[in-house]
Write a structure and sequence with these properties.
About 30% of the residues lie in helices and about 20% in strands. By secondary structure, it is an alpha+beta fold. It has 2 domains: about 30 residues, no CATH class; about 120 residues, Arc Repressor Mutant, subunit A (Orthogonal Bundle), CATH 1.10.10. It has a 3-stranded antiparallel beta sheet with strand order 3-7-8. Strands 4-6-5 form a 3-stranded antiparallel beta sheet. Strand 7 and strand 8 form a beta hairpin. The radius of gyration is 19 Å and the shape is elongated. The protein starts with 13 loop residues before the first helix and ends in a 16-residue tail after the last helix.
Length: about 160
Amino acid sequence: MSVQAPPEAAAMTLAEASRWVADRLEDGVECPACNQHAQVYRWSLYRTAVRALVLFYKLGGTTDFVHVSQLKAAGHQGQGDVSRLRHWGLVEEEKTRRPDGGRPGYWRVTQLGADWLEGRVTVPKYVNVYNGKVTDTYGEPVRVQDSLGNDFDLRALSIAGGSA
């Protein structure tokens, strides 16, 4: 639940309002200057997001941008999982905008994402995100198998061991 601005908010300077918001970001707060919700989000690499990464890798690897609708066509329901993976640097979004100014919905796996899927590197388990940007990474380094769980065989997807 978001903390509401105090009654004296109308008399705050912008610097005071900024400090007031910064002190309350962990729980979420309504900015007294603009009424926008502000919060630090703590995210971990969870199984459905990693499965989306595996699928994106299979569909386009590190070279082709793939539209998120292809995830649904392939039976994956968590299209929003892909955008969260960008906070670890595992995917990147196509930067070209649609004619209406919207985001195109095309993503590809980065080299870091491929290296992580293929077991060559680890990534931090958690990220803190504020205003769409990573403010902190922490937690033990995780392998792709740590995020997928032991009952998921990555080799069955022809990813592990460089066989992709």
